[in-house]
Amino acid sequence: MSEISLKYNGTIPFIAFGTGTSLFKQSAYDGVRQALNKGVRHIDTAQIYGNEDSVGQALKDSGVSRSELFIATKYGGGRDVRSEFNDSLRKLQLEYLDLYIVHWPKVVEQSGGLAATWSEFEKLKSEGLVKHIGVSNFDNNDLDELLKTAKEYPEVNQIELGPTCWKKVEHIYKRNAELGIVVEAYGALAALTSPKSDLDNLFSQLGEKYGLSKGAIILLWLKSHKIVAVTTTSKDERFEEYNKVYASTLEEVDGEAISKLGKQYLDVKFPEHLSNVVV
């Protein structure tokens, strides 16, 4: 599985190359070119990352057909939706977006509140300027508030999600799944940068079993939940391993073991984005 079905027709690639975090406020040109050269077709950026222009130039110079690409960026709330969207489209050198995302619930203050902001997103979609619309860092209360007035559900919700913060976000994942909203995970590989011995040992054991790296095992865990992985790498071997992940399936017992161990921890790297979540 390299694609996940979306609520209103179409699919989204399972792995996205993210241009935040390590590329924040830096040129993403080389990273995006490398990702595209290695076969990645889903590129995730945002107005606040400050690198949409370098992403756009990389897309243009890559020679990859627009129809093969899935490009997502996010509304940062600096101005009204239409102005910021047009600016992002210009920087990305595109005629339309595959996915446009409300970056945080709080950014809607600049565009008249959540209902008004989402209405503008729906207009962009109806005009053919965006194929899919979504949200990011929305907890269940935020989603419920949006759905009071929404004509269309968001098709994705991008949140921090990985084995070591599963305890905090599992109920958000389940609520989204009930609504047919695809969850996208950022920070999923954080468990490798501050390893927990028992969970790290499990990753190693499963890595040997499946012939994959520990990071790829986490990607398989996300895949088993039909969660999009937003991740970044500059290592050729990691890109090449993505094909093995696409072709592999995590046994249910192994996925459950990761979830069970992961829920012993509450290792959240970006707590301000899910400040309303109560464990």
Automatic annotation (TrEMBL):
Domain of life: Eukaryota
Site for Lowers pKa of active site Tyr, residues: 74
Record keywords, A-Z: NADP, Oxidoreductase
GO molecular-function term, one example from the UniProt record: oxidoreductase activity, acting on the CH-OH group of donors, NAD or NADP as acceptor
Xref: PROSITE patterns: ALDOKETO_REDUCTASE_2 (PS00062)
Residues bound to substrate: 103
InterPro entries noted in UniProt: AKR (IPR020471), Aldo/ket_reductase_CS (IPR018170), NAD(P)_OxRdtase_dom_sf (IPR036812), NADP_OxRdtase_dom (IPR023210)
SUPFAM superfamilies membership: NAD(P)-linked oxidoreductase
Domain NADP-dependent oxidoreductase: 21-260
Residues forming the catalytic site: 49
Family per record: Belongs to the aldo/keto reductase family.
Protein's name according to its UniProt entry: Conjugated polyketone reductase C1
Highest classification ranks of the organism: Eukaryota, Fungi, Dikarya, Basidiomycota, Wallemiomycotina
